[in-house]
Amino acid sequence: MENERTVLVVDDDAKLRSLLKDFLQGEHWQVRTAADGLEALAAVRAQRPSIIVLDLMMPKLDGIEVCRRVRQTSQVPIIMLTARDDEVDKLLGLEIGADDYLVKPFSLRELAARMKAILRRTEGMSGKFAGEGADQNPSADDSLQYGELRLNSRLHTAELQGRPLTLTPIEFSMLELFMRHPQQVFNRLQILDATHGFAFEGYERTIDAHIRNLRKKIEQDTHAPKYIQTVYGIGYRFGGGNSGGEHDV
Predict the structure, then answer these.
(1) 6-119 and 143-238, same CATH topology
(2) pLDDT of 12-21, one tens digit each?
(3) Alpha-carbon distance 197 to 217, whole Å?
(4) Contact (Cβ atoms closer than 8 angstroms) between residue 170 and residue 99
(5) In the CATH scheme, what is the code of domain 6-119?
(6) What is 160-192 written as a DSSP string?
(7) Structural domain boundaries of the chain?
(8) What is the CATH number of domain 143-238?
């Protein structure tokens, strides 16, 4: 698949675009660039990148609006870049569908590591990167069911009451973690490690934003969730006191 290693870098800073392009090409990525939000949307439609690195502050359309519009038609992974260490900006980006964020200035190696970690959780990506064959026949270990939720990790599909769910890679990875370990309590750093491939203090609140997004997609009442329970002072667990997840806690 010719675009499986394609990244779209969107930033109005020409020097940063050039720096990121040179570095990521050295990491064996195909790199496309855009200088503003309108160029970014056109590039997403035309080039269908594997992942987007998206600046928050840009002319014409800012990163928040670009992310919002991309999420209307695509679940391509998005890493948001922000020049301000502002919790509101970061959480807003995550709330509308960004998978991760980095605050400028950032380490190029860290950016590359995060890109790879997110793509490892997209459909069949780890096997493709390793040169493995893609076996599309799901096994029992690939299929999970809890209450009215069904998930298949090999086919990267999730359903609620028989209806397909549209999940970002991080949301899918998070749901798979919970469904494989019902009743187990996970703190935020554990969820970060499982879903992002790394965990460190200061990014735990990103989990709260992803949890809110996931609840909107699977819970009938987000204020009285049936599936994803908050364990106050610790983190989250999946399901209540019964294995079928049919009753609120």
Answers:
(1) no
(2) 999 999 999 9
(3) 24
(4) yes
(5) 3.40.50.2300
(6) ETTEEP---HHHHHHHHHHHHSTT-EEEHHHHH
(7) 6-119, 143-238
(8) 1.10.10.10
